[in-house]
Every structure is written in structure tokens, then in C-alpha cells.
């Protein structure tokens, strides 16, 4: 009798302990960056004396510590890779070293559906995918053929016990026809609805849609963006992250007893050669997810302002992504090249004016 009682107690204790472990909240942090562009001026800054050698490490050295603090980091790769000659606007192609450095900086996932996806035609799509695959960087948005899209899309990302389904679309490809059999995900509401339904069947904790949309250089979303965002969140998308306008647009975190979703209309230029304010800066948005048992929710959202500093060092113009708050809160930080911070202050004032329209998404000063 005593043995049975002891066994029952042990079984009950094990069950309680197992439940407690399962019920312990799990957390993961995500970071999203906007447009990664490479204009001619940036390529010239990274070019090394040796043939085909490029060094992009200085471009991301100051932002790297921030990116690395997040469990998963995503960005929009707005250039093709590996097609020579390497060029900027209007038909972008960058050396594979760019993807290598993005990975070293802490970016884990890249999306490739944007208006420059077809800049180097079919070879550009193929080579970009080849480069990313060779580095083991998960990606989505462009595909070598429909069969690959059918079997790999939506992209399912599994990390730290979380399952994330990633979607990616662009409004167009600058009028360049998509060369068959390649596929570039275009914004089509019926297709997006079908893809969302397919994503939900994968039983993810969150569905994320990274959208290339909106009007260039406009600091407010247009009606198409707003309607698409509403449709996607009502259909089951939890995070809608926008790019393309090359400037910041507001962010809205809707959280009440019924809804919990985030819409970021535009993150701006994470890095580019565009120097006209406000195109010379951006924001990265941080998201915390918390999962308990079978329930996963967005538990925190914030943003960091970033700026593309471009000092002349040793007679060469450089392009460096800088966290704005790092400069503001670290007076002793040596200014690379010793000049140019005045433009950062001007950018920050304008960016914060736009971000005042955010709903439930505050700025985080340092991390």
C-alpha cells in the first residue's frame, strides 16, 4: 500500500514538474531592417586593390553589436548578387562579399522580392539564390521555378522552439519582365490570401509578411498599403513589415483583448548611397515574442533609429550604419573621420517627428 502511494506521489510530482516546464514562458527576439542597397559610391568605398576583392566590414561595424543582441535578424536585400560588372542604380548587382558581411553582422534571413529583383534578368535571380544558398542564409521572395516555390514557400523558420512562417512580396519589378521559369512574388491579393492560408496550415507561432510597397520618399502610407495591411492582419498575419519608400513611415502595434499584430509601413534605407534627408537614415524594429503552452503573442515592440554616416577617411568616402542613440549617449565616442555628425542630428529630428505618429511603438535608446 505504501509503495503504491509513494508511486502515485512520484507520478503526480513528475506530471506537475512537466507541466511547469511546459507552462514556463518561452521568449524570442526578432529584428527587422529595411532596404540594403549598394550604389556605385558604396561599391567604390568597399573596393580593395586586389582584383574582385571588396570589404564591407566597416559599413556594419558600428551597428553589429545591436544586431547581434537579437535572436533572429531579417533584412530586405535590394540588389542582385554575383553578376559582373558590379553596379549600382539603376540595375543593381553587388559582389557576394556583401552577403558574407551581412551574415557576419548578424543577419539570419534575407528577403529578395523587390523592384530590383530582375535588374540582371534571369542570371541575376539565379546567381543571387546560388550565393545565398552557398552561405546557408535562409531566403525567400524569388525562386528559380514554380516547383521550388511550391515546395519551399512560405519559408518556415524554426529557432529556439519557435516556428515562424515568412511571406514576401513586391509591387513590381520596374517594368522588367520576369524571365520564365523564374518566379518573383508580386502583390496579388488572391495569391497572398492563398499563401496566408497555406502558412497557417504549417501551424506556425507567427506569420510574418515582408512587403515591398508604397510611394517612394513619402512619409505616410498610401491607401493601398493600408488596405493590404488590414486584409493580411484580418486573414492571420501577425507581423507586416514594409520597405521600398526609402524613408520612414509610421508603425502601429494593435493590442487589445481581440487583436495583437504589428504593422510597420516602411523602415527606410538601412544602408544606401542616397544622401538627401530623410533618405540617409532608417529604423530597425525589435519585436519580442512570448509563448506559453499553445499561445504565442507579441509581448514587446520598439525601434532604434539608424543613420548612414559617410566620412572621408584616407581620401576615401565610406558608408557606415550608425545607431543614432549610440552617438547621442556616448559623447566620448570618436567620430569616424571627424565630421558629418551634424547631418545625423538633422535626420534624427525629422525621423522622430514621423515616429510620433507611431501607435504603441516607442524608441529604445541603446539596448
UniProtKB/TrEMBL annotation:
<dbReference type="InterPro" id="IPR029052">
    <property type="entry name" value="Metallo-depent_PP-like"/>
</dbReference>
<keyword id="KW-0732">Signal</keyword>
<feature type="domain" description="Capsule synthesis protein CapA">
    <location>
        <begin position="29"/>
        <end position="274"/>
    </location>
</feature>
<feature type="signal peptide">
    <location>
        <begin position="1"/>
        <end position="20"/>
    </location>
</feature>
<protein>
    <submittedName>
        <fullName>Poly-gamma-glutamate synthesis protein (Capsule biosynthesis protein)</fullName>
    </submittedName>
</protein>
<dbReference type="Pfam" id="PF09587">
    <property type="entry name" value="PGA_cap"/>
</dbReference>
<dbReference type="InterPro" id="IPR019079">
    <property type="entry name" value="Capsule_synth_CapA"/>
</dbReference>
<dbReference type="InterPro" id="IPR052169">
    <property type="entry name" value="CW_Biosynth-Accessory"/>
</dbReference>
<comment type="similarity">
    <text>Belongs to the CapA family.</text>
</comment>
Amino acid at each position: 500500500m505504501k509503495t503504491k502511494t509513494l508511486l502515485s506521489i512520484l507520478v503526480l510530482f513528475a506530471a506537475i514538474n512537466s507541466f511547469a516546464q511546459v507552462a514556463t514562458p518561452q521568449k524570442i527576439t526578432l529584428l527587422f531592417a529595411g532596404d540594403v542597397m549598394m550604389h556605385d559610391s558604396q561599391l567604390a568605398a568597399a573596393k580593395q586593390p586586389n582584383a574582385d576583392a571588396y570589404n564591407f566590414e566597416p559599413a556594419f561595424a558600428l551597428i553589429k553589436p545591436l544586431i547581434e543582441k537579437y535572436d533572429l535578424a531579417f533584412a530586405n536585400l535590394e540588389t542582385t548578387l554575383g553578376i559582373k560588372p558590379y553596379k549600382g542604380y539603376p540595375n543593381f548587382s553587388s559582389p557576394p562579399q556583401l552577403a558574407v558581411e551581412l551574415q557576419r553582422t548578424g543577419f539570419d534571413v534575407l528577403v529578395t522580392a523587390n523592384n530590383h529583383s530582375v535588374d540582371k534578368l534571369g542570371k541575376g535571380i539565379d546567381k543571387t539564390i546560388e550565393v545565398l544558398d552557398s552561405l546557408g542564409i535562409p531566403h525567400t521572395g524569388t525562386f528559380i521555378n514554380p516547383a521550388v516555390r511550391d515546395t519551399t514557400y512560405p519559408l518556415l523558420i524554426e529557432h529556439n522552439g519557435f516556428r515562424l512562417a515568412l511571406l514576401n512580396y513586391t509591387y513590381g519589378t520596374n517594368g522588367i519582365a520576369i524571365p520564365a521559369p523564374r518566379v518573383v512574388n508580386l502583390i496579388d491579393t488572391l495569391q497572398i490570401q492563398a499563401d496566408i492560408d497555406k502558412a497557417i496550415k504549417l501551424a506556425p507561432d507567427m506569420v510574418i509578411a515582408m512587403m515591398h510597397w508604397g510611394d517612394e520618399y513619402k512619409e505616410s502610407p498610401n491607401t493601398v498599403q493600408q488596405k493590404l495591411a488590414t486584409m493580411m492582419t484580418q486573414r492571420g498575419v501577425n507581423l507586416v513589415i514594409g520597405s521600398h519608400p526609402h524613408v520612414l513611415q509610421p508603425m502601429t502595434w494593435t493590442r487589445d483583448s481581440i487583436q495583437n499584430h504589428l504593422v510597420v509601413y516602411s523602415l527606410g534605407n538601412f544602408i544606401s548611397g542616397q544622401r538627401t534627408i530623410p533618405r540617409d537614415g532608417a529604423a530597425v524594429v525589435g519585436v519580442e515574442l512570448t509563448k506559453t503552452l499553445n499561445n504565442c503573442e507579441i509581448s514587446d515592440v520598439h525601434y532604434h533609429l539608424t543613420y548612414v554616416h559617410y566620412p572621408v577617411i584616407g581620401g576615401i568616402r565610406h558608408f557606415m550604419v550608425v545607431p543614432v542613440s549610440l552617438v547621442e549617449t556616448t559623447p566620448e565616442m570618436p567620430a569616424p573621420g571627424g565630421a558629418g555628425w551634424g547631418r545625423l542630428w538633422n535626420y534624427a529630428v525629422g525621423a522622430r517627428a514621423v515616429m510620433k505618429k507611431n501607435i504603441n511603438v516607442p524608441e529604445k535608446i541603446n539596448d
